[in-house]
Design a protein that fits this description.
Layout lengths: L1 E7 L3 H12 L3 E8 L6 H14 L6 E2 L15 H4 L21 H11 L4 E5 L4 H9 L9 E5 L15 H4 L2 H9 L4 E4 L1 H4 L6 H10 L3 H20 L7 H10 L4 E5 L1 E4 L9 E4 L6 E7 L1 H12 L4
Parallel strand pairs: 1-2, 1-4, 2-3, 4-5, 5-6, 6-10
Antiparallel strand pairs: 7-10, 8-9
Bound molecules: beta-D-ribofuranose (BDR) and calcium ion (CA).
The site of beta-D-ribofuranose has 16 residues, from helix 1, helix 6 and helix 11.
């Protein structure tokens, strides 16, 4: 089993990724840690708890930072994910409660409890990971690896010409996380735009798993409307899922190795870059086997309720 901590801002593509992780037979989700981005952090926490209840998988949920490290908060992405983060599809108020430790404390605690056994997956702004690094710098040697959804290396951003949303929302945290001396793979827009979940595919998920797949199909309608209006294509991009599919099937991905950097100030804040170097424990994904990913996602989801 692959032990993971999933740092997330649910969010519709976060929901797609969380439901897959919670139902994957080889992934052991030790905790969901929450962050602002698609919604405010408090709502991200409630949404993470809602998804645990929907999937009948009560994993610990730890609430994270409410604001970025240095910049003022950007507005939440309600025009992409809806005011409730789930495309206005309501799930019941959760009866589960978050744990009392913060996201960063939970990350530090679990990495120390299971040294070199835990993969840290981050699919939202990177504030919690940066705070965890500050709380306990030794975690760089205790994590198995770090997998991030964020950035736009050889392509345009989705918030500005240069910046992708997760990096844009806290460029200082991203700079610390992408340059820390730990093994890290980043899935930016270069690779995430290569996968589309279209209406037929989402219907298939719903027919296989009526409760979980049905919810995801309904929530993704709002998200797909955004893609129709802004990108003129049918369906939606499951950005965050690219980081999760990588965990058990890295062979589907093309990687480029090098040192990474993030611009924090000036004219292009949030711009990510990679420089080829002889030895690097960092990589970005540039391509993926789309057919294999889609087939596998549906197979895992068919095990959901
Ligand atoms: C990223 O930003 C969020 O809107 C998505 O959940 C994803 O993590 C894509 O840029
Ligand atoms: Ca996300």
């Amino acid at each position: 089993m692959k032990k993971i901590i999933l740092d997330t801002d649910p969010g519709i593509d976060d929901a797609l990724a969380i439901c897959y992780a919670l139902n994957h037979p080889q992934i052991d989700v030790l905790a969901l840690t929450t962050i602002y981005g698609n919604v405010a952090t408090e709502l991200a926490t409630q949404n993470a708890l809602r998804l645990c209840e929907l999937n009948q998988r009560p994993v610990p949920v730890a609430q994270g930072a409410l604001t970025p490290l240095k910049i003022d908060s950007n507005p939440v992405a309600d025009f992409v994910h809806g005011l409730n983060g789930f495309g206005e599809i309501e799930l019941p108020t959760p009866s589960l409660q978050p744990v009392t430790t913060t996201a960063a404390e939970t990350i530090v605690e679990l990495l120390n409890k299971f040294p070199n056994k835990v993969t840290l997956v981050a699919v939202g702004p990177l504030t919690n990971l940066a705070i965890a690094l500050e709380l306990d710098p030794t975690i760089v040697n205790k994590v198995d690896s770090v997998v991030v959804m964020g950035g736009a290396f050889h392509c345009d951003g989705n918030v500005t010409q240069y910046a992708e949303a997760n990096i844009w929302n806290d460029p200082h945290a991203a700079q610390q996380v992408l340059t820390a001396d730990w093994p890290l793979t980043v899935h930016g827009l270069d690779v995430t735009y290569r996968i589309t979940f279209d209406a037929n595919y989402l219907e298939q998920l719903a027919s296989q798993a009526p409760a979980v797949g049905g919810f995801l199909m309904d929530a993704a309608k709002f998200y797909s409307q955004f893609y129709k209006e802004h990108h003129n294509f049918d369906g939606c991009c499951p950005h965050d899922q690219l980081a999760i599919s990588f965990l058990c099937n890295p062979e589907w991905y093309t990687l480029e190795h090098g040192t990474l950097d993030v611009i924090t100030d000036g004219e292009a804040p949030g711009k990510t870059s990679i420089k080829a170097t002889g030895h690097s424990n960092k990589a970005i994904a540039t391509d993926v086997n789309s057919e294999a990913l889609l087939t596998d996602y549906a197979a895992v989801l068919s095990q959901a309720i």
